[in-house]
Design goal:
Distance between the termini: 41 Å
Low-confidence stretches: none
Order of helices and strands: HEEEEEEEHEEH
Number of helices: 3
Largest sheet: 9 strands, antiparallel
Mean pLDDT: 84
Shape: globular
Number of strands: 9
């Protein structure tokens, strides 16, 4: 249930949480819980936010996060996330609608690459994501979605697409090893 769903979240800074409602500790069917979180330095997988604010409603086995605001890499993510039982399987369905505005490209690349150094591309990263699919541990049920990414005032050709080989490929074919 709720504990398993939060295993990918780590609070590394102060967190204010307010909760009201009922928690069914037996089967969870009768759970009706509202939680509001306002926290700093929250790690979501490998991404660390400066500030995270979210409203969560747990209704039985459904989890609805609305008005999620994450200040991350100098930008902001606004998101709504729904996790609910899949009517066609014993798994859960995931639905995400998110928008990112004005994040620092270099900081985002550092988080994605998990390295100590990123190319100095500069620029601001914005985008949107709509994603749906079945969450099934150990099985890939596939996800469907759409999205858009935009980088303003950045040098895309400095992002190494082929990792360490990018420098060598670009020496032979200028620009090819980079985005």
């Amino acid at each position: 249930g709720l504990r398993k769903g939060l295993t990918w979240v780590t609070f590394d800074g102060p967190a204010l949480m307010a909760a009201r409602g009922e928690v069914d500790t037996h089967l969870g069917d009768k759970t009706d819980l509202y939680v509001e979180v306002d926290a700093t330095n929250v790690a979501l997988l490998q991404f660390t936010t400066d500030v995270a604010r979210v409203r969560l409603h747990v209704d039985g086995h459904s989890y609805v996060a609305t008005n999620a605001i994450l200040d991350i890499y100098g930008g902001r993510v606004d998101a709504n996330v729904v996790v609910s039982p899949d009517t066609n399987s014993p798994h859960y369905r995931l639905s995400v609608k998110a928008q990112l505005a004005d994040a620092d490209v270099n900081r985002a690349i550092l988080a994605l690459r998990k390295t100590a150094k990123a190319p100095e591309t500069g620029g601001k990263l914005s985008g949107r994501l709509n994603l749906e699919g079945v969450l099934a541990k150990g099985e890939s049920k596939g996800y469907r979605g759409s999205g858009k990414v935009r980088i303003d005032d950045g040098d895309l050709f400095r992002i190494p697409v082929f990792g360490g080989l990018s420098r060598y490929i670009s020496a032979i074919f200028p620009g090819l090893g980079f985005a």
